[in-house]
Design brief:
Length: about 190
């Protein structure tokens, strides 16, 4: 019998041994049409936490928002790059590419958003996300005023904050529990068309 590769530094519960866990996995795999990601499988030890995480993720990333899906994925890439989290940069780089079909722009955002020729609003969003990630104690009302001056509503600014906070949470799950890449994952960021 071949030993399965560990997904993290903590044990993973086999979903076949838990009706609750199996139900969550089946629901998410049906929704995404793909196997459950390692960053979610690491929650198997606490299914209720996994379920709450998925509700938060789906609300922040797919719920009603003044931000586009691409903007939300862009924030995820910027935060994850600022946190040196290649797992999340890769996953959300792939998601950004899926939504926009802009591979080169995605790669530039992943390397340094300042080189990606973003419009003023997206650049301000990225600056806020990077500052909140790297230097949250230095945030001031001026950081909000800048986005507001470019036309973002307070509801949109709140969503920027929530996406940023969510990815900081997830990056720390990945780093703190040693979550590894899924076997055979194809990363658009690393694909040079060869």
């Amino acid at each position: 019998m071949m030993k399965q590769k560990r997904i993290a530094w903590i044990k993973e519960i086999d979903p076949s041994t838990s009706k609750e866990l199996r139900g969550i996995y089946e629901r998410e795999e049906k929704r995404t049409k793909s196997p459950i990601a390692n960053v979610l499988r690491v929650h198997s030890i606490k299914p209720k936490t996994l379920d709450a995480h998925m509700q938060l993720y789906n609300t922040i990333m797919f719920g009603e928002s003044k931000l586009s899906r691409a903007q939300r994925e862009m924030i995820g890439i910027v935060v994850s790059e600022a946190n040196a989290c290649p797992y999340c940069v890769s996953h959300h780089g792939n998601a950004y590419y899926f939504v926009t079909h802009e591979k080169e722009k995605m790669k530039k955002i992943a390397k340094d958003f300042r080189t990606a020729e973003l419009d003023d609003i997206d650049c301000a969003i990225c600056e806020y996300a990077e500052k909140l990630t790297k230097n949250s104690y230095k945030m001031t009302e001026d950081d909000i005023k800048k986005m507001r001056s470019l036309g973002l509503s307070d509801a949109a600014i709140f969503d920027v904050n929530q996406v940023c906070a969510y990815f900081n949470y997830v990056n720390r799950i990945v780093h703190g529990l040693g979550v590894g890449f899924e076997t055979g994952i194809k990363t658009v960021a690393d694909d040079d068309g060869q």
